[in-house]
Amino acid sequence: MSANDSICVLGLGLIGGSLLRAATAAGRVGFGYNRSPATVDEARDAGYDADADLDVVLTRAATQDALIVIATPVTALDPILGAIARHAPNCALTDVISVKAVVAQAVAEHGLSDRYVGGHPMAGTAESGWAATDPALFTGATWVVGTDDGVDPEVWQSVSALAGDVGAVVVPVATDDHDRAVAAISHLPHLTAAVTAAVGGGEGALALRLAAGSFRDGTRVAGTAVPLQRAMLEANAPALLITLSETIDRLTRARDELRDRGSVQVVADNGHRARLRYEEMAGDEPDPIVDVEIGAPGWTGDLRHQAHLGRVWRGAQTRSASPE
Amino acid sequence: MSANDSICVLGLGLIGGSLLRAATAAGRVGFGYNRSPATVDEARDAGYDADADLDVVLTRAATQDALIVIATPVTALDPILGAIARHAPNCALTDVISVKAVVAQAVAEHGLSDRYVGGHPMAGTAESGWAATDPALFTGATWVVGTDDGVDPEVWQSVSALAGDVGAVVVPVATDDHDRAVAAISHLPHLTAAVTAAVGGGEGALALRLAAGSFRDGTRVAGTAVPLQRAMLEANAPALLITLSETIDRLTRARDELRDRGSVQVVADNGHRARLRYEEMAGDEPDPIVDVEIGAPGWTGDLRHQAHLGRVWRGAQTRSASPE
């Protein structure tokens, strides 16, 4: 595990830049790398420790035994991991990329699996780049921490502590479960937003002039930069295909219901019920995961089981929910 | 036309109640009807002139030559129109219902077409009822005013003046064009939101715990009361079926693109382009419709033509856009 609170953030876009800012605000020693000197200049102008030389940054991470956080697009992963393997192979390693199976595989190919625990903060906007960074981006967000069998408990705790320090709550999830869940609640909404926008836009200026709240909110994420959307969605193609097919099936049944019986009752009921369940969960303070000692036999399965019930990790808690 | 500024609002839910409040705030004499005495009490407690006796309200509308605004669900239309035909057949008549062909047909069946000009303010929230009313609901909204050939120019101006008084801009649209456009930019987004919510909800508590902005915004309108959604969408079934089929086709092509080429480029590009066009239109002050004299030969066609270019009616304007 990291012997200290240093973190090294690779990639200073919306997520990485916000993380560097939030972790620094939380009292951590943070430094970062970005490929673009312009972004490095923006970060430095804002008072942060940033550099465009990856080797230099990783050598420093190794010296300080920092926790390395990969915050680049998934498409940039391979050279980044190559450099880590060369310069800082013993550092604890995590990432904030929105898919997990592809990253875990790339990490394995570079021989870095032992020190890797994946992460994914469920936060973002349609904006991107350093200018969009916000140290409060993670406040109240959920932060997935990879919890497959065999992960290093010390790295797991180091990653979870970082998430907690920047205001997020930890959800321990296995790689495949993560990818399936985010296909449904993040990647699919990008596709339905895109198609909804395209259908409305196809009706021309008059229709767009009439567009109000349902169109505005329902198509918001279609405004995300296309390369970012492609990197995210295409890296999760297998899970997204399943969930996209289900969506097409549901819409087709809705069309049949409307055509044959003049009704949208089934589709509206199902959607309404799911939305209310979501609002209920979003409105309630989540229950904590209890009675799990990190590193004890079966700890990963215990965490995953409780996360499936909607609970979150807030550090070690006993059943009475009082801190140990 | 109405000889004065009186308006009679039938139905005091979100739209009707907000209209009564906004019109009163704009200095108009407004009074209203609601079937539910509880809602009438709420309106009265807030200082508004409301009654649960439809015959009494309509008799008063006839005496004052008020503009009657139907703000009930489309499913309640028939008895309302029957009462108007009995008690106030000579009043100017409009509505704020979200479909126009069905309303126009019902109005015709009650022999009220001569004094009717349809309307549809593009404003609303997922909330409903008097408690959700807001006198600022229409500020900056677009308000469709029915502009088929043959509509009465004086009633048309009366309806447009009301929309302007409550802060909206008028978009003159033919019945069929309206229904097709709102199918695409309002009714379809309800179905895509419903299906997106159902797919996410189907993944269980873990997935909903991970849901963030894309799911929250993309499924918001699925939270609208199901009876309201059904009344709105089912009354526009023919237009909605066309747009829903197009949506299924686009999603199916997206699935094929993802499965066969691992790419979401086409769907993401199309959605992104449409969303940016929408943002551009939503961000710009719309150009005014110019050089149309209401009631002059060809006025309805002239208005519709300019509305198709994205322009809005702000009262008579010459090409230089200075008020006449």
Automatic annotation (TrEMBL), chains A, B:
Q: Which residues form the CRIB domain?
A: 294-310
Respond yes or no to whether keyword Oxidoreductase is given for this record: yes
Keywords tagged on the record: Oxidoreductase
Q: Name one Pfam family in it.
A: PDH_C
Work out whether the entry's keyword set contains Oxidoreductase: yes
Residue span, Prephenate/arogenate dehydrogenase domain = 5-289
Q: Which family does it belong to?
A: Belongs to the prephenate/arogenate dehydrogenase family.
**Name of the featured protein:** Prephenate dehydrogenase
